[in-house]
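Shall we go through a protein fold together, starting from nothing but its sequence? Please make up or recall a protein chain and show it to me in full. Go ahead whenever you are ready, and we will take it from there.
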Amino acid sequence: MDTDLDDAHTDHTSTRTRPVAAGCAESEADWRRRLQHDTPGGRLLAHNAMTRALADGRPIHLMHTTTALNAIRASGQLYASSGCLLAALYCAPLTPTSAGLRPHNLGGYLLQTKPHTRTLMIEITPTAPVPAMGIDYLRLGRVHLHTYLDHRSFLTEAEDAQLRGKALHQIRVAAPFLDVILANATGRRTPPGTFVDQLAAAAQDLPFLGYVYFEVLSEYLMLHSTSAETKTYAAAGEMNNHLYKRLAFSAVSGMDKLFDLSRFHPGHQRLHDLIVGIEPRLAPGAAQYTRGRLSHLFTALAVESGQDATSFSFRDQDFDGLTRTAPSLLGQTLFREMRILQRYPQLYLAFEQAKALRAWNYWNSHQIATPFNGFLPKGEIGVNPSYPAADCAVWLAETCERGLLHPVDELDVAFVPRLADLGMTAMRRDATGKAAGHPAVT
């Protein structure tokens, strides 16, 4: 039994909820009910086309875009990559129609914005319905922490000291605002605009806050949007991925080249202006939603359920103390600092392959052939390359003038339980040789 990965998986069709620290004004069940029943798009959390396709036990059709078609053909192998799906081959769903395979709106976005790539169609035939369990990367902190503790020997003494020192420094610098988050989670409210401005400042010191901030706003947009575009996608059982794409690319220059949420930290007025540019009627409520949702979510993620959030403080915590009281936050912070070590390209497989092996073992034990992004079932889905109980076929596909995919050439390839090299992944280093998370050179 892997309790860390149990905690990191979410099934929106289940009534199972996780405990939170004592003193929190709301439980995970409270928020689950609110999101599912009190928002225009909430029904899609438990009832969407992607998870329905997994549950019916029939062949699953996915699309994957790649710039490495020649290498795939030559090797006859397909590898997974790290990222939000932890250790899966990143894909988007396809729906069979009489005229061809219709991409999910996420897949349509990828086809539109990545014209330099080739598209693979993957058909997976499971032996049984696939559980609707998604991996929530925001909840992988304990996995990151334990991987670091188990593999410290791969680091030099100076690297280890740097990693521990920077992670602890980030949490200590952000501690005053982290305590504000706990206060709000326990019912002692900060004015919404003030909260967002403080959040924006703290996220520049503690990058993980930028990830939580962005996911909260993505959730707000996708579940509350009532635009004609959103309604069209909802009728097909899909969340509108264009909303958070517009948010990210409008908020951060160059995000389309290096998708790095550590750079996402808009203040209150900037947030208002961003939402006005996406769906104006949602702008007035964005700050209040951020305050309430982020305060609960961060507290649930960061503070062990055995702690009391009304009295806990992040001030003056030491490294060993955080491993006991806030291991998930410490792990997320270490992971993001690890990615900017100069030797990270050499260390990447040592640390990330260890997580991948753990994930594959968990997925195989739970019959999960196609893990998906579990924070929101928005269409980010992957292939577990180690799953033994499913038949897989891979085709090169072409897109017709109607935007439908058509398989044209079956490839002689097999999925291999190995991570792709860093340079081939979405976490690749940029043109300056620096990985996502490096501060800009001025």
